[in-house]
Amino acid sequence: MPIAVNRQISFALANHTQHLNYWVMIRTLVLILLGIAAVICLWNGSVDLPFTEILIALVILTGVNLLTFSRLRQSLPVTETEFFIQLLIDLFCLSAVFYFSGGANNPFVSYFLVPVCISAATLGGRFTLTITGLSILSYSLLLFFHVPLPILAPDHHHQHDANSLNLHVLGMWLNFFISAGLITYFVVKMARDLRAQEEQLNRWREDQLRDEQVMAVATLAAGTAHELGTPLSTMKVLISELREEYADNHQLHQDLTLLQEQVNQCASTLRDLVNKAELAKEGQIAAELVQTYCNNLIQRWKILRPDVKSRIELAASVQHVNAVFSPTIAQAILNLLNNAADASPDDIFIRIEWDMESILWTIEDSGPGIAEEISAHLGKSFISTKNKGLGIGLLLTQATINRHGGTVTLHKRTPQGTITRMQLPLVKTS
Known about the structure:
alpha+beta; Heat Shock Protein 90; 3 domains; 5-stranded mixed beta sheet; two-stranded antiparallel sheet; 11 helices; 7 strands; elongated
């Protein structure tokens, strides 16, 4: 009966393609409002604006908006740099519009805060600092360099130099400067926290999905282990009888001896599984020398895989280190060794090193390696790189080692093959 696993969709903030979609909508709305304002001023005739220059800036921005809309219909993702360039284009075009329509006296000049807010919420710190710096610089230059409009000038400007500054304009500039600085600092921090929270949430959901899969496998494994006891006992009896019956056939006798060792190992594994599970439940796992544990594990693997040719190297910085190993760790390491043996049974190099804090297993094989398109998914779901694999070995290994504070990483080996590293912190005796 198949096991139904509840797959949850990972939470994700909007990507830059969605951000650019929103920005195109904002830009379109701004262009419509600026166009309406220009038409009203042109129709009224009381405001002497350089309509030609303003129209050129608006046409350029409209052309960019149409090209962006066409670009968004393609499947190519939008990068952070591309979105940053889009904000810069709006900043320069709007600076030109404000230059020809009163400069800093234009009441809409505070719109410069919009690109700052968008950048702070969606882009990295250096991009946001650039947008903020250019916005403040543009606002500051518009205080002194612009085409003056008498209708926008303060009342007392009519009594003094039209290019002079007053407290109201300076106050608007100072307010913009402070607002831009606060937005840049606090919104960038909040956006960074949100992205970190998103990554943590996605990792938690991936771990939860993996644990659900592992629990489903564990439930089946417990029932299967119980069912295997009877056929293994039958096989042991039959093999013993066959060895006695064909004692004169040397070749067959050797094969039966090997088969009996394999069956005995299976029965021993089942017994140890039950016994260690009970000990672990009661918290009575005994500590042992790390070197002894590793040697016993290697010997156990060699019995299971007598056809494999391997080179073993134990390199310990401290010889006599006692540690407590959960029963599930041995099975996890055996899974890694068997994966390497399946990939290249004629050439495996195993290096085991440890100190007072952790142990590191490095397993090198010269097999075909792992394809890039599936390497990112290994250990997260049922994915197998072998024709007859079930895809659960590395999943169980990753879950086990992670649960005990360790890591499993796979790397490409030159000229071919895979390097598997398993690092695990040592649990000392109390």
